[in-house]
Model the fold of this input.
Amino acid sequence: MMMYSPHLCDGGRSEEWNLLLRERERESRQRRVCVRVCVFFILFFCILNQTQGENRLLLSHFNPPKNFPFFSF
Done:
């Protein structure tokens, strides 16, 4: 019967090396999530800013009465 030593079961890597690799993978995953969230918010605010600009252009032709409570220009 052949016995396997712990350092041969995982391809010869030590436990410290495996922990280091797992930590790097976790950091890289966190970095990817952070980049995705940042890109999402940048695009979201760019699109929001564009649509608000278009709404302002549309509303600039609409002159409400002075006592109209919902719009304040």
Notes: The two ends are 87 Å apart (CA to CA). Residues 1 and 9 are 16 Å apart (CA to CA). The mean pLDDT is 75. Residues 11-59 form one domain.
